[in-house]
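Minimal example, chain plus glyceraldehyde-3-phosphate.
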Amino acid sequence: MISITAFTNEKEVYSVTGEEQIGTIRLMDQEEVENVINEAKEAQPYWYSIDLYKRAEFLHEWADQLLENQEKIAATISKEVGKGITSANKEVVRTVDLIRYIAEEGCRMHGELMKGDSFKGGSTSKIAMIDQEPLGVILAISPFNYPVNLAASKIAPALISGNAVVFKPASQGTLSGLLMIEALLETGIPPEIVQTVTGKGSEIGDFLVTHPKIDMITFTGSSATGQAISLKSKMIPLVLELGGKDPAIVLKDADLDLAAKQIVSGAFSYSGQRCTAIKRVFVHDEVADDLVKVIKENIDQLSIGLPEEDATITPLIDTKAANFVEELIDDAIRKGATPIVGNKREGNLLHPTLLDNVTSDMRIAWEEPFGPVLPILRLNSEEEMIEYTNDSEYGLQASIFTKDVQKAILLGSKLNVGSVQLNAKTERGPDHFPFIGTKKSGLGAQGVRRSIESMTRDKVFVLNL
Ligand code: G3H
């Protein structure tokens, strides 16, 4: 059992199955949060004064420490957020690779030089040297579903660019996040630079996001919380990675075996608890029967069970989440959707559910379940598929399955989403690609270079020769 501190104001953390107490976390109050923010603010200029290559060395050392502690961290992720142990291990290794890439990319950010005479009336005697300065203290708020990877994807770019960090992990996911920070502190990095804040959102959430010494917020989580942050934060840059309702668009000429395989992997890995999960299928009527058949065959292959059994479909993060998914399934069936497979619940374990003949009046056509349910909407034209995609309040990603690449690019250009995947599932990685959400799916951009850019600002020195 992981016990971080022995403060009286603590909360017990249980495994996702609720059977085992796996640790305790400290519930900080506003005064404690105030202190850590002040420490971070004071220490940040020193951190920025350290040579960039030395900051990069700390990050490489952090990656080494994570690898050394991989087994322990992966086991904690698996218990705490209910991820199969293979996926939990992959999360740690993916994070190691990401941190190393960020360290290297940070060292390649060399600023820019602009000549004055490229503007009409300008002169060769004016030259701008443009450097990138850190913003100051970055508030990094991570979600439960990637408690290590999505935390590091915010902390590492902040550090390499000379910022201090205040890190607030999701409540369920805190123990994994804290182990990751322990590994970082093992490198000998000044501890004031990376501050972890744990506690109840209701007690410290608003205090954090409105604090005048927080210079930028990077958040991954629900659209509702993201919107609340954007309303409350005061004139500071925000990067928000929020919900999604990513469609898989399957055209008449698609390779249906490939499409089904990708769709099932995209929709059901980690029980659909991913912002980028495929959350609805728009299929041309003519090939719908065949597609549904192969999707069902692929779903039948999914393992269902407990995280320690390394199953793909595991209990959802909590009862509220499971109730919500069930509610969406019930609504669709009541309104005439055809359950093809699944629709079975054991506690918070929901069997992977495929719903055919879903129509636009059903909530599942529009709402994000964050669970293992996939609706099929049979449509007649590409125009309709574009309309259904763009009518969503979300705009994260979309997949298009067709053998006609030109058609896919033309169609994709009409979709109001951050990324379009051709003949593959929707997903964030590889992690250095830009990652963007439109509408309620997000604000700003992530991906290694974009993340670093979001945490720095241009500083212009004009040389008048
Ligand atoms: O849940 C949001 C994550 O950014 C999704 O990442 O596509 O690698 O699962 P992923």
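The chain has two domains: 2-242+442-464, 246-439. The chain has 14 helices and 25 strands.
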